[in-house]
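Hi there, hope your week has been kind to you so far. No rush at all, and the record is pasted right below.
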Amino acid sequence: MSVLPDELWNRILEIVISTSRLGYRDLCCLAIVSRRLNRLSEDSSLWATLLALDFPSSDPPQSPSKSLYKTKFERDKARRVAAMRRLVLSAESRVDLSRKRLADLEDKMVRENARLKAAVEEMTNLERVKRASVALKVWQPEVVRGRQKQIVEQCTVPVDSRLSSLLMEIRVCKQQIVGFVKTYNNEKQKLSKYKEAVTSLKYHPLQISQLGLTLKEPKVKGKKLKLCESAESSR
């Protein structure tokens, strides 16, 4: 190392940084190897290249330095942490909304089942009335005839038309229940995915890009920064 002049070492460092083979962490690690590398790593041109790669902007900094990079890094980290929190809150809100929809569907299914049960019971009673009215037309013992006559007299609605209405109502209830069950199962699948997304955001921040929730980040070097910041923010 002592054979090569500082100018050549600076050129080497510029090349590996510009080709994204050396990041800010690598440069910081080189700085603790020796006094010479520590001095070389402070060169403003190296940090200007890193700033341009990791924090691209239309206005290049007037005096690029390691401290300026650190300031921008901390600001960007705070922005990313805030963005992550917003993503978590958004995912949690989807979970809450999905649970509310499931509770609403459960209430609708309970009401529809109760309506179906009431319609079936009423239809059963009307069928008894219909059978009793038919049985009155044939000879029967007086006791049986009196009981059947009492059943017919207690009915105050037209049997045939009401039976037709009940059949239609039962058919509609069954269709509604089938639709509610299908929607309920689909919503349960969505809720499971929403829960997985929340878990991944909270406990596996490095997988955020796989969830389709990633923000627009700087290319190439920004990927290394994202991995580093996600690991630090998850601690």
